[in-house]
Amino acid sequence: MVRAIERTGFDQKDVVIVSGIGCSSRASGYLNFNTLHTTHGRALAFATGLKMARPELKIFVIMGDGDCSAIGGNHFIHACRRNIDLNAVIINNQIYGMTGGQYSPLTPQGSKASTAPRGTLERPFDILKLARGAGATFGARGTAVQPRQLEQLIARAAAHKGFSVVESLSQCPVAYGRRNNLGGPVEMLKSMKEKSISVEKATAMDENELEGKILTGVHFSIEAPEYAEEYYRTVTAEENH
């Protein structure tokens, strides 16, 4: 993400990192930008307020899968619906990695977790399909095993005007891998690499061939009015009237 921000050419003082609670959300304490470490699931709510107060800022919101899609799920769908110019980076390790190993809305069906010792019965969200259905205008997926591609995807998301979502598949060898007999960090990364396939290549494959695959790349990019711009345009028009 740091390389992606450098690639875009944004001034360091104009960049804000907002995070909630979780392994991923420690990033705000390690990065030398304007930072805001918020409460569990509320990162997008804080980021929305900041964007409305300071629309010129470039805001990246780092969340985990549980942080974003469970306790923060309502904030997520409404940020998508508004198409506000925020860059959501969802680090998806398919489990609540830091707070006890509970399953999240992105945990694969049948996987074991502290709250699903026999395997979760619930089907997971496809977070990009959810984002698109709710109104987000940019969605992409990358993995921890392809960092250069991920850098490019985050840079493209940052250049997009509107609500962008980048899902980054990551491994959690302790809370998820150990419970599900997936091996250590290296084995989990190798498995992730073997399962990854580009969205371009996927177009030539049928449903059976795509079963269990991770589709990487840009899934959608749409032009639509951005919320903060529309708001201030309306206010200015009323004042001038």
Describe the protein in words.
With 241 residues, the protein is of the alpha/beta class. The protein has a single domain, classed as Rossmann fold, CATH 3.40.50. Helix content is 40%, strand content 19%. The protein is built from 12 helices and 8 strands. The chain has an 8-stranded mixed β-sheet with strand order 2-1-3-4-6-5-8-7, with helices on both faces. Helix 7 links the parallel strand 5 (138-143) and strand 6. The longest helix has 14 residues, at 227-240. The protein starts with a helix and ends with a helix. The mean pLDDT is 94.
In short:
The protein has about 240 residues and is of the alpha/beta class.
Features:
single chain, Rossmann fold, 241 residues, 12 helices, eight-stranded mixed β-sheet
Count of separate DSSP helical elements: 12
Question: Which bin fits the share of residues in helices?
Answer: 25-40%
The overall number of domains is: 1
Strand order of the largest sheet: 2-1-3-4-6-5-8-7
What's the N-to-C terminus distance?
A: 43 Å
The named CATH superfamily: Thiamin diphosphate (ThDP)-binding fold, Pyr/PP domains
What is the rounded Rg?
Answer: 18 Å
- What fraction of the residues are assigned to beta strands by DSSP? 15-25%
- Mean pLDDT equals 94
List the uncertain runs.
none
Topology (elements, then pairings):
Blueprint: H1 2-8, E1 15-19, H2 27-30, E2 34-37, H3 43-53, E3 58-64, H4 65-69, H5 73-82, E4 87-92, H6 127-134, E5 138-143, H7 147-159, E6 164-169, H8 173-177, H9 185-195, E7 196-198, H10 199-202, H11 207-210, E8 214-221, H12 227-240
Parallel strand pairs: 1-2, 1-3, 3-4, 4-6, 5-6, 7-8
Antiparallel strand pairs: 5-8
